[in-house]
Structure prediction request, 393 residues.
Amino acid sequence: MNRAANKEDEGPQRPGLQRGWSAKAVPTDQTLDDEELAYLINISESGLAQLSSDIGFNDEPKSLDLQYSFIGSTGAAVLANGLKSNEGLHFLNLRNSELGDMGAAALVDSLPPSSSLAEVDLCSNEIGDIGARAIGGWLRRSKKIQRLWLKDNRISPEGGASLGSALSENSSLERLDLGFNDVGDAGASQIAEALSAGSPLVYLDLGSNGVTNQGAQALAEALNLNCALQTLILRVNRVSHEGLKSISQALLINSNLLELDLQGNMIRDETVEYFAPVLRENHSLQGLNLEDNFLSDVAVKDFLQVLEKNVDLRLAHFKLKNNLISEPQVLQFDLFMRTHARELKEKLKKERSDSKRRQSRMGRRNTSKASRRNSSKRDPAFDAAAIADSLSA
Prediction:
């Protein structure tokens, strides 16, 4: 067992390995005590049973890390017995633990609405549509979950649609990672509906999910409504010029999206006419990734022309590697972006400094006004005495 306190000055650290949880027989009084972070490895069946019993009444630990523990669905059911009454845990990491559908369902079905879990990592657990539906049911109940990591599972369009539908009823989830699944257009479209309905999601990873233009167009409709989304990852999908056209048109209106990742799609030179107005007029986008597509020197030259015309450009990162671009053109583009990034950094620094000075002046002005108002007020007792003196005279 590894334990560590999450020290603010040093960051979370893993302590030395101690015997106890991974032994064949674990004492029934074994406990996590008041450790804020517990990192356990090679946990035995008896150790897992005692851990479940301990967290059932011990709300002191805030983070429980069981990644690569391979507890399987049976172990997940054991752990669920303790989680159903725990209200102190904020972070649960079960990445790569061979949970499967049954294990994932056992875990989330045990979590009460009062659970304080804000972050759950279930990446690489062979979770399919059955598990996704169970997770969706939990999302409908949960009031605290903010970050959910489901990368590298087996969730298909049906499971993706279940998760998207649940998002429409969840008011807390801010970050969702579904990379390396297969939710397709159906899953992407259902998630887009949730975004359009007011989901607070600010980070969405749908990389390597078989999303085509149809899914991209659905997401563009949500962006067109200026949804809360700030980061959208659609890398390694099948989005071509039609999907990019819809997204580009939405970004002429949207002012919230900061990062857009379209690496490894089917974007060619003809898409420049759609995206050029975005580069010229959008003042919020900070990062754009178009690597591993089919853009040539023609596209890069057009990009440079419009970028130079955007005096309020906030784009600090624009990635174009591994396209059909010549080396001289790559060097020219990189030089422009490095120069712009440096100028943007100085510009933002000046803007922050000016903002602080304005706030300081406003604070002094308000203090001065308050002081003058206070000095102009007369003491009621003094006023009464003055009136009495004048009457007696």
About this structure: The chain has a mean pLDDT of 86.
